[in-house]
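HUMAN: Now follow token order:
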Amino acid sequence: MSSLSAVSGQTDPARPSTGRSVLLVDDDGVFRERLARALRERGFVVATADDHEQALQRLDGNRFDYAVLDLRMPGPSGLDLLSAARQIDGAMRVVILTGYGSIASTVEAMRLGAWSYVAKPTDADELIAVLEGEPAAPPAPAEVAVPTLARAEWEHIQRVLAARGGNKSHAARDLGITRRTLQLKLKKYAPRR
């Protein structure tokens, strides 16, 4: 067993899989560890990573049945990691976690080989149902709801904020608004559509 396997609790890649091993990648440490603990309590072997590089280290020499990847992370996105993970192990079921609900990113994830996608916040039971269920079909063009202007604005603000590493001053400058206006917009909940 590799040292990484021993640390992550993952079994030796040469041994048959239990069918319940998961790589969970999310930059939100509290959410990641809460979800990992809940999955372990339900019989899964879980390894965690908080970014693209750490996830690639976990994938090196380890076999996972499932990977759950956050869409938006500092550095390379979950879509970049999805592509790399599918090249490493094409049989692994990859589920994308998204807190943004963007139709375009969901369609792109499905095109790149994601098994399905789950909106954040989620719980372990919902995630397990998706991991072990049928693959999701990307939304058909006729089924795609056109987002409202408020939703499109909120998603754009979230993308700019993520690109700036959460720095509100830099994000406000990029958006062409004051920091105070940005803070007021961030206090609002995400529009439904």
